[in-house]
């Protein structure tokens, strides 16, 4: 599910808040079993992985992509990024 959220964000569409992102994914998913709570959990994981952060200031207001997001984009997604980070932490 994290990959689905990642790919949605990578597509370039801007979202003003987390609920808009989650609802967009649930609505546009071709899988009827995708639920709001599953997508929300995946969004929270991306926040914990420091792929995204939510800015609620009046100036920006929205979901901001962080360095780890762009690193994952470069290597092919969330799974390859996690695999790389795990291999680096074992050493």
What does this structure look like?
By secondary structure, the chain is mainly α. Helix content is 60%, strand content 9%. It is built from five helices and two strands. The chain has helices spanning 2-10, 18-28, 36-48, 67-75, 78-90; strands spanning 52-55, 62-65. It has a two-stranded antiparallel ribbon with strand order 1-2. Helix 2 (18-28) crosses helix 3 (36-48). It is globular and about 35 Å long. The model has no long low-confidence stretch (mean pLDDT 91).
Summarize it.
Helices cover 60% and strands 9% of the residues. It is mostly helical.
Shape: globular
Q: Which parts are unreliable, with pLDDT below 50 for 5 consecutive residues or more?
A: none
Strand content: 5-15%
Radius of gyration: 13 Å
Instruction: Please report the number of helical segments.
Output: 5
Order of helices and strands: HHHEEHH
Query: What order do the strands of the largest sheet run in, or round the barrel if closed?
Result: 1-2
How many β strands by DSSP? 2
Secondary-structure class: mainly alpha
